[in-house]
Protein 1
Amino acid sequence: MFSREIPDDELDAILKAQVEIPRIVMDMPERRKIWWAFRNHVYYHSDEERDPEVIKGLIIQKLERDTKRRAKAIDVARRDQK
């Protein structure tokens, strides 16, 4: 496995860019996963997709689904209390 220290200027560039578009922070071919930084969080996806715009869309879709799922769960819990 290959590892290296990221120079400060490279890390700063990744941190600034990941606010708008996902950036690869770790590639794990042996596990077929790529780890992406986006909006100060880290996500993983299969190594088949490497287009940051696609990854951004997939992450946003997941966040939207999670938000709807949580809202529905709260609604169900509140209805049960009545």
Protein 2
Amino acid sequence: MRNKRGAGLGIAIVIAVMFFIIGMTAINFVTPEVTRTRAADALNCADSATISDGTKLTCLAVDLVVPYFILLIFSGAGGYITAKLLL
């Protein structure tokens, strides 16, 4: 008799690793857009003395895109493996 739970977990790990690799590759497309958005001709986040408080808050939100995306990738891959373990 074959252990179906172990086989399912192995496939889940492979899918989670594939999701992780695709997500980390996608970050390479997001990072230049974040840099371009923060540039002097867009939000001008480097010069905090001349921008308004709303623009400063927008700069902080734009800076959080990449770490939030990485957290989303980790939680998606880990959640998929955890779901396969529990079900």
